[in-house]
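Posting for a labmate who doesn't have an account.
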Amino acid sequence: MDETASLKFDSNTKSCAQCPIKKRAVCAHCEMDELAQLEEIKSYKTYAPGEMIIWTGDDMSFVGSVVTGVATLSQTMEDGRRQMVGLLLPSDFVGRPGRKKAVFDVEAATEVTLCRFKRVPFETLLAKLPHLSARMLEMSLDELDAAREWMLVLGRKNAREKIASFLSIIARREAELHKEPLRDGSEFDIKLTREAMADYLGLTLETVSRQINALKKDGVIALQSKRHVQIVDFARLMMETGDDDDGGMVI
């Protein structure tokens, strides 16, 4: 495991050296002189579970990266109905350069620490630092891929496939964050409550619990605790997602 994964991040130190997302953050490819310029406009802020980070329509004075924790992206319709439309996991970017107003509510699902950059100076650096702009483009394309993947999960998959897809996505993100291979025995914590999972996946709480227990009973996963998951058979988990990975005809 990446040695940074075992470090408890202390935002008071303001140290990039111990940052658990340094290999995946927007600054991951920056040289030392570029990091020094980002340091001048950087600050950390920690939000309590349930605290609103950004409201739709807010003036965006900052952008930044999720260092620890999980946040949700939501939209509220005119009649008051609210729909969760995305998750922000460690290394994901908050806000969009060039956009002055927020278009989603961003809420801390767990305790969240953000590495924040003043928006206008960040936009200036984005235009002049090639490593920063290249990484920003990579992250934007990754975000687009993730959005398309969730459209399939929410729109076409049954309950078991949704849960398997959710677990596989979290497993892949954890592996990418720590630069580890995906393999049988991989472990991770589900930061969301089962209620939040149900809301995000369009399922009931009872269905989420039933499907997780079914995957456990079938030997696909093991539960070390209610939120700590071990992937017993990763190939089987991917089969359970219902995805057609080879592009062939589904029979």
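Reply:
Got it, the structure tokens are right above this. DSSP finds seven helices and eleven strands in the chain.
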